[in-house]
Amino acid sequence: PPAIAGRAVILVDDGLATGATMRAAVQAARQCGASSITVAVPVAAPDSVTQLEPLADRIVCLHLPHDLYAIGRWYENFDQTPDRQVVDLLQRAWNRGEQPA
């Protein structure tokens, strides 16, 4: 895993229903010494954002519907992304970050 101690961390998800997974991610990033934590999501349940506010330094959420129901409801296409594709994309992004400017 990347070393995050002393770094600003941005945690991104496709949306927050209960927010439980994001709360765990924020707590893990804190324990690893992140200097600041930003949560970024396109859509979230208002209660989930309220529960995260004391844990994260910043929350960026584009849409807070009171009738969230399910995250997939707010997407035209909510197909699952295969694990291999996720790993490949993360590796490409990581490698790009290591290249000199």
> How many H/I helices?
3
* Class of secondary structure makeup: alpha/beta
Low-confidence stretches: none
Query: What is the residue-mean pLDDT, rounded to a whole number?
Result: 93
Order of helices and strands: EHEHEH
Helix coverage percent: 25-40%
How far the N terminus sits from the C terminus, by CA atoms, comes to: 23 Å
The strand line-up of the biggest sheet is 1-2-3
Number of strands: 3
User: Beta-strand percentage?
Assistant: 15-25%
Sheet bearing the most strands, described? Answer: 3 strands, parallel
The 3D shape can be described as flat
From the alpha-carbon coordinates, what is the Rg to the nearest angstrom?
15 Å
What oligomeric state is this? single chain
In a few lines, what is going on in this structure?
By secondary structure, this protein is an alpha/beta fold. The chain has three helices and three strands; from the N terminus they run E-H-E-H-E-H.
